[in-house]
Amino acid sequence: MKTMKMFLSLLMLAFAMPSLLAQPFTLPTLPYAYDALEPYIDARTMEIHHSKHHRAYVNNLNSAIKGTPMEQLDLNELMLGVSHFGDAVRNNGGGHYNHNLFWEILSPKPSEPSETMLRIISVNFGGMEELKKELRQAGMTQFGSGWAWLIVTPERRLAVTSTANQDNPLMDVVEERGVPILGIDVWEHAYYLHYQNRRGDYLDAIWNLIDWSVVEKKYGEALVSQTLMRIPRESE
Ligand SMILES: [Fe+2]
Question: DSSP letter at 6?
Fold first, then answer.
């Protein structure tokens, strides 16, 4: 009930200041070429993934919200309250949010975690190898299409989770919630041309592309974010 009231208030607020927030969502330009992530992710996969799949999520999201109060909400707001906004926003808003994050954390010039980040990973998982194992397991056991995540929980711990389809841990329809700081796309469209059914090989190879400086920046931002404060703790 409290949540419903909050979203009604948000929608009323959105009506009150349409010109401030109105925006169509746009496909981000990749900060690297389609062939820059080879040999780990091939150019054709990158091109189709970004220019076809991601573009479709953006276009479908814009169609779903056009002419509605949802048009006035930013992507985080749409994700946090997605249970109120329908399947088209859940699938396509999720698709847009998830791929934005995915392109950001990949790089042809990957970087290693800092000493501080390694210590935090060690406290939460026992070490970097254990974190990699957990993420691999999350990706391998996600039946069908979905995502494996490293998230900051509302208790400010790090955790590994997975979600189906284009759901993500911000969504109020997902059981294990938090702010994602690293996401691995395990839809077949992310790897099938090069790896076919070998999802495990793709999950092993992707560590060659992770830019930990970006993940770490996202970790710092998540800890102090309004978004994290909006996600209820487990005990609440
Ligand atoms: Fe994808």
Answer: H
How far, in Å, from the CA of 164 to the mean position of ligand 1?
A: 12
For residue 109, what pLDDT is reported? Answer: 97
Asked whether residue 182 carries a pLDDT value surpassing 50, the answer given is yes
pLDDT at 217: 98
Distance (Å, rounded) from C-alpha 2 to C-alpha 75? Answer: 21
Q: How far is the CA of 185 from the centre of ligand 1 (A)?
A: 6
pTM for the whole structure: 0.91
- Report CA(16)–ligand 1 centroid distance (Å): 35
Å from CA of 54 to ligand 1 middle: 7
Position 234 confidence tier, pLDDT thresholds 50, 70, 90: confident
Give the Å distance between the CA of 227 and the centre of ligand 1. Answer: 23
SS3 string of 113-156? CCHHHHHHHHHHHCCHHHHHHHHHHHHHHCCCCEEEEEEECCCC
Q: What is the distance in A from the centroid of ligand 1 to the CA of 82?
A: 19
Q: What angle do CA 125, 156, 1 make, to 5 degrees?
A: 130
Q: Ligand 1 centroid to 178 CA: how many Å?
A: 20
Domain ranges for the chain, please list them.
2-15+42-105, 115-230
- The yes/no answer on whether domain 2-15+42-105 falls in CATH 3.40.50.720 is no
State the pLDDT confidence band at 6, using cuts at 50, 70 and 90: low
19 pLDDT band, cuts 50/70/90, is very low
CATH of domain 115-230: 3.55.40.20
